[in-house]
Protein 1
Amino acid sequence: MSVVSRRRGVDCPAIHLNLNVRGLPLSSTLAINERSASLIASGRDVIKLGLGQSPFPVPEVVVEALRANAHQKDYLPVRGLGRLREAVASYHSRRHGVARSGEDVLVGPGSKELMFLIQLVYYGDLCIPTPSWVSYEPQARIIGRQVRWLRTSASNNWGLQPEELEALCKEDPDRPRLVILNYPNNPTGYTYGMDKLRRLADVARRYRVVLLSDEIYGELQHDGAHRSIAELYPEGTIVSSGLSKWCGAGGWRLGTFTFPENLRWLLDAMAAVASETFTATSAPIQFAAIRAFEGGDAIEDYLHQCRRILSALGRVCADTLRRSGATVGEPDGAFYLFPDFRRFHNQMRAYGVHTSPELCALLLEDTGVATIPGSHFGRPEEELTLRLAYVDFDGARALEHAALAPPGALSEAFVREHCSRVVGAVERIASWAESPGVRQTLRHRTA
Ligand code: GLU
């Protein structure tokens, strides 16, 4: 009997999958990256605006620290290396004016993993604005948590309004909730001003929600003036950060959560699960991360140039899309735009595009530009939105030239010269959206 059922398991694997993961595809960000890579390998010229990977190299001082620590081979403490936890705490105290100690920090192999762990250990609904980053919702579903989407609108740059959060909390005031707020935002590039953060913090406090403030793009706010909601709701806010975006080290896989002292029980529960799963984060990477979180002039200069480039490029891309008739918000930070092509509804329908997945699939097919459909961020399928990550350029070269350019905002000419693939791709998107019927011409051009 056991042999038979084991065989059945092999023959009909789907039956033996946990219900929560049956039919679960690869995460959209990674799937588009792999699809782009395989198209490139087959000879297509694909412009990769799909995966949100920093175009910039890791700062040399941090690479140097990694080199110097390549020999570190021991398992490190589950919660993270003591000196790193101290460095992360003092980074947050310094940058955000919120007093935290090393004891408040949990280090993991990417903030994504920590987000999964918090949902696993915290028994409450996951509340996220629509649109939100592609992985929050699938993580909740894998674990079996209830997901509540919070409405937003394009006219508010897709930002969460305090009234929406309040309306949800009022439905059942004592229900435990984990609210994720992400700013500068993936997928929109929008960030909240201090007034809006204050009003959101007031609602969060009133209903005692656990607020996970995903600030992984904080250092990439284009004006360099990122503020944390932890300043305003310190007792209930966990700040998520890491090396992936501002330090250009996505592949190093290091993320951090910084807790208020009264949520230490949550940190401890996550550490217990970590000890039974990933054990500890890679030792050499943790030693190198100390250098990154310590900051200093070299890192400040690097960040200053990264921000100048992203700010100028984001503006050129948004203007190009807007001129063509797409609706798109002004980018405040990170490297994303979330255009809405509703204006082109008629020509899209005539061309066979009824949904955002169809929009992105045909766009890739016709123009060679890879993007991610708005529906993967929690928007309705029939809404013609997509996310583009303006990252397909040589970040090292752009940094070198930005350092030589006169101070102040970088010019459009700079962006056209050093980020030409991205600018060209956005122009292709704009002209394709205006007349999607001309796909043969475009296909020839990219071939
Ligand atoms: N955060 C990045 C993005 O949204 C990619 C990293 C990932 O999904 O793991 O494209």
Protein 2
Amino acid sequence: MEEVREKIETLRELIRYHNHRYYVLDDPEISDAEYDRLFQELAALEKAHPHLITPDSPTQRVGAEPQETFSEVVHHLPMLSLENGFNEGAVLDFDARLKRFLGDESPIEYAVEPKIDGLAVELVYEGGALSVASTRGDGRVGENITPNIKTILTVPLRLTPLSGGPPVPDLLEVRGEVYMEIDDFHRLNRIREERGLPAFANPRNAAAGSLRQLDARVTAKRPLNIFCYGIGRMSGDGFETYVQLIHTLQAWGLRVNRPHIRVCPSPEEVVRYCKELEERRSGFPYEIDGAVIKVNRLALQARLGNKSRSPRWALAFKFQPVQASSVIRKIDVQVGRTGALTPVAHLEPVEVGGVLVKRATLHNQEEMERKDVREGDTVLVQRAGDVIPEVVKVITSRRTGREKRFRMPDRCPACGAAVSRKEGEVVLRCRNRDCPAQLHASLRHFAGKGAMDIDGLGEKLVAQLIETGLVREAADLYHLRMEDLLKLERMAEKSAAKLLRAIEESKKTTLARFLYALGIRHVGEHVASLLAERFGDLEALSAATEEELMDIPEVGPQIAESVVSFFSDEDNRRHLQRLLDAGISWERPAPPERTALRDKTFVFTGTLQGMSRTEAKERITALGGRVSSSVGGKTDYLVVGQDPGSKLQKARARGVTILSEEEFSAMLEGESHGE
Ligand code: IVH
């Protein structure tokens, strides 16, 4: 038996080695046939001795039974997103901002690489073996997609140190982007269309849809791939630079986009490479929607730290949207959840940057008239990342004279109510609160991913629920019963039960998601999370005044007005109460763990040598403390830099504890390590 065990282990090691050569280094040493023989030999031995099968064996990529639902995975370090910049100026500003923050004008070295248009995942390796893989989710909690990730052949089930490389750490959390190549995406869609299945809108949706499969056998048939671009937690020694980290990840068997990562010593160099990548964009076999600019030195990254949603040390340089021309077959009007009427152009299907576009927005009547867009026109269409495609301009030289002008209707196409325009606004709105089209759009929003996330509440089902009168407002969803659903067309017991379960599960949510789901005007996902963070509960938020709301740096008068008016509306309050009565609830987020400096107030005088004031302030607030500009009754510490001013005397007179810069740094160090 020992002999068999050894033989199996040797085969696994060999296969892993050749996997790495083939998938990661793109440099195979043996033929496919030789590889297949090794694999078959291992499979046969394992079949004869099933007790010797381990989860990290190369044969175990598609072993799992379909799951009922995805379980949750908490990301120990949050998975953040990136701040966007759209031009050269944004890159130069970014560089200047970092220098100011660090209080140091020395050049910063950057690593620049393509931004892959896929979906972010986290892979956890424990003792060198892949233990858990998850989606980004809301950044804090994602979905457990381990069986699905295992089907991706470029994801190693076990990390393999190449000789001479650094040892594989006991714990490694790797982050990367799962994506589908453009050719594979088209091939998949062709097959789906032949089978009468709906096509995926773009490679990213195809990748996401393939990864979020309860049955990993489906995922296994989809051509997914991964690029790793960062880490979460890691045990053992760290690295000096991002580029070193990437090289080491590759040495351990993880797939990285090494040939396209370039170190740039200045912001000008960064801009040049970003533009180069943009020009080469269509030559990549996968979609890239920008370049990611990262500070190369990891010690600097650590000093720069994070903002609420994104690291301070990185910037996404977004590319210009891609354009194509097509013909408008007809124009019609869509009613959104706020009643806004949007003219939509139905196009001859056209591919724009790898995505088939059939409709494009014309925004509103004014825009449509300004661009003089007519039915039958040949137009330029553009698509940028996530946003809805839009008509950029008419190619007037293609006019035949048979084009037809479109006039916005004076009645809502869905409910027939008169539409009107508010003073100073360009948008026409249907003001009928019971308009089915508005209800449709708000229910879809309510059930959407970043909102209550009710799986299975698709377009057709929502339409049926409204038509049958089963749902008149979102709260009605929580009173649906099995017998109601079974009366609907094409609704069997199994899918009804699944839907009811999804609705039930959505009740446990977060305040931020719930606020976003309510569809308050100007309150998107980001603002909703700011509001939730600041007010903590619904009572406090609904009682907030415009001034209190505008205390949040990113909240302006428009948002403040909209929030106050939402919560003062009688009908909204009634609906809210019904939702809460139905059992929607959330936990109050735990107070930040790092409370060492909680409520301690710091004041600075003189110039700090090791860090800028901004950085010092950031680090204090991260540990729960406050910074004030003058010494007063509440001051706990005065930090004294070079050439202190009169604050020093004032602090001494008041008996405030005085810290030298060294003492202050030691205090920060001590606290941030003592998590
Ligand atoms: S670094 C803190 N590098 O873009 C986030 N992200 O818009 C660090 N993405 O959520 C991310 N390619 O999913 C990084 N080369 C790359 C990337 C990349 C794609 C995604 C990632 C992130 C999103 C932000």
